Amino acid sequence: MRNDVWHEYDNGLPNMDGVSNFDASITSYEAGKKYQSGMFMTAEALGNLKLIGTSDPNFDSYVMDEFAAGNYDADEQVTAFYAMIEDKIGDNLTLIAGARVESTKIDYTGYKFDEETMDTPADLGIVTGGSDYSNVLPNLTLQWDLNDKWNLNLALTQSLARPAYYDLVPYEYSNSDDQELALGNPDLEASLSTNIDAMVEYYFKGVGLLSLGYFNKNIEDWIYQYSTNDYIYNGVAGYEMQQLRNGEEATVNGIELTYQTKFLENFTFMGNYTITDSSTDKVEGRDDVPLVGQVDNMYNLSLAYETEKFFIRGSYNFADASLDELSDKAFEDRYYDEQSFLDVNANYRVNDKLSIFAEGKNLTNQPLRYYQGISTRTMQLEYYDISWNIGLKYDF
Length: 396
Description:
The strands form three sheets. This protein has a 21-stranded mixed beta sheet that branches. Strands 1-4 form a two-stranded antiparallel sheet. Strands 2-3 form a two-stranded antiparallel sheet. The protein has helices spanning 43-47, 64-67, 165-168, and strands at residues 7-8, 21-23, 39-41, 61-62, 73-89, 93-114, 125-145, 150-161, 172-175, 180-183, 191-203, 208-220, 223-233, 236-246, 249-263, 267-281, 297-306, 310-319, 322-327, 334-336, 339-349, 354-361, 368-372, 378-382, 387-394. The chain starts with 6 loop residues before the first strand and ends with a strand. It has 396 residues and is mainly beta. The protein has two domains: 1-62, no CATH class; 79-394, TonB-dependent receptor, beta-barrel domain (Maltoporin, Chain A, Beta Barrel).
C-alpha cells in the first residue's frame, strides 16, 4: 500500500517587491550579458519564512504529479506446496526430482489522474483490478560424477516471474495538454519459463576449474515496456502512451564458458563468457524481435594478487547493447547501449585488527546511454565519473 500526499510552499507573492532581495547576476560569467541570473531573495528573507507544514496557509498547493498516480492499495495471497525426492542411482549418478505448486490471488485499487484538470486528491478517479492463477513448477536434475575431475549436470525446470506490485496497479496518469499517458496493467500475467540446462565441469589439480554450459529457455507471457505515439485516449488520438505488456512467447539459447586458475603462487585469474541468441514471436505485429533486456555477448575478467598481508584485484565487465523498450515501429524502439566497466579494489592488513582498504569503480568513466532504433540516434547520455572509496577498518 502507498498513500502519500505531497505539498509545496506557495507564498502567493506575484513578485519580490515585498521582500528583501538582491541582484545575483555575475558580470564575469562566461556567457556575459546573454545570461543574467537576476533578482533573488536574500538568505535572511528565506530564513524568516515559517515553513511549519500544512498548518501554514501558504502550504496550500498539492504536488499532484508527485503522488497521485503512484498511490495504490494491494492485497496479494500466495499459497505454495513443495515436494522433493533425492535418490542415488549407482555410485556416481544422483537424481533430484521435485515440484512446487503455487496459487496466487491479487486485488488492486489505483487512481486516474490528469495533471491539467485535477487539483486535489478529491478529484481523483478510482480504478480497480485483480487476478487469480495457479502454477505447477517441476524440477528434475541429474548429477553425474564421472570421476574426481569430471562432472556432468543436466536439469529440466520451470520457473515463475511475477510482475512487480506497482506494475499491476490499474492507474492512469495523463497530461491532456501534452497528450502524455502512462497506464498500469492489472491484466499482466506472470512469466512462465521452461528451462533446459546442461553443464560439464573439469577440475584441475590444485586450484582451477573449466566449465562449459548450454541453456535453453522458453518463456511464455514475458513482460516488456511498450510505447507508442499514436494512442487513442478518451476519444482523442495522438497520445504518447507507455505501459507494461505481455508478449506471447520468447526463446533464449546460450553457451557459457568459465575458466578459473591460480598461477605463480599468488595470482588468481577468473574469466566468464556468455553468448546468447533470443527471439520473440508475434509481439505488436512484429516477428523475431530480440527479448527485452537480453544481451548477445557478455564477459567478465578478473585478475587478483594476494599475499598474507596484501590483496589487490582488477575486474573488467562487458555487456552488449540490449533492447530496453519496444514500440509498434522498429524506428522507435529504445536500446540500452553496450557497457564496459573497469573496477579495482585493494586491502592491506596492518595487523590482526587494523586494515587499510581502497576501491575504485568505473575507471573508464563509462556513460549510461540509450539510443533509438540505431546506435547513432542518442536518446539519453549520462556520465557519473570515477568513484573512489578509501578507508580504515578496525576489528574490536
